[in-house]
């Protein structure tokens, strides 16, 4: 009269379906009461930490006193970088990395020159609200 294996199989599928729908409903309904809710502090921190802390392919480089413009141009050409802006006349430059190297790699290469006082990423800063 009844095909017990087929009935058992259908019951198993039904239980799996009900459990799946319940899990999805529970997962999505957790904050249904407040659709305009803002992320909690912990979630904001996670989202914020995923953004790069510095501008990709940009570095700030400060040269030591007395370095000629020709030598600066030579170093920048050797390191495959270019000047975006001059921040302190003849000493501090905002530069762009012209290839796909990381900022860290470019800084390591730049600081290997004795004429460079320091090189650092172009950090992003945000004001507190």
Highlighted features:
four-stranded antiparallel sheet; alpha+beta; 129 residues; single chain; 4 helices; Alpha-Beta Plaits; 2 domains
Question: Secondary-structure map with pairings?
Answer:
Elements: H1 4-29, H2 41-50, E1 54-63, H3 69-78, E2 81-88, E3 92-97, H4 103-110, E4 116-123
Notes on the structure:
This protein has 129 residues and is α+β, with helices and mostly antiparallel strands. The protein folds into 2 domains: 4-37; 54-123, 2-Layer Sandwich (Alpha-Beta Plaits), CATH 3.30.70.80. The chain has helices at residues 4-29, 41-50, 69-78, 103-110, and strands at 54-63, 81-88, 92-97, 116-123. Strands 2-3-1-4 form a 4-stranded antiparallel sheet, with helices on one face. The N and C termini lie far apart (73 Å).
Number of domains: 2
CATH topology name of the largest domain, in short, is Alpha-Beta Plaits
Distance between the termini: 73 Å
What is the mean pLDDT? Answer: 80
Rg is: 29 Å
Strand count, sense and closure of the main sheet?
4 strands, antiparallel
Q: Structural class, please?
A: alpha+beta
Order of helices and strands: HHEHEEHE
Instruction: Give the assembly state of these chains.
Output: single chain
Architecture per CATH nomenclature, i.e. the level-2 architecture of the largest domain:
2-Layer Sandwich
Strand content: 15-25%
CATH class of the largest domain: Alpha Beta
- Please give the number of β-strands: 4
Biggest sheet: strand arrangement: 2-3-1-4
Write the CATH homologous superfamily of the largest domain: Peptidase S8 propeptide/proteinase inhibitor I9
**Helical residues, percent:** 40-55%
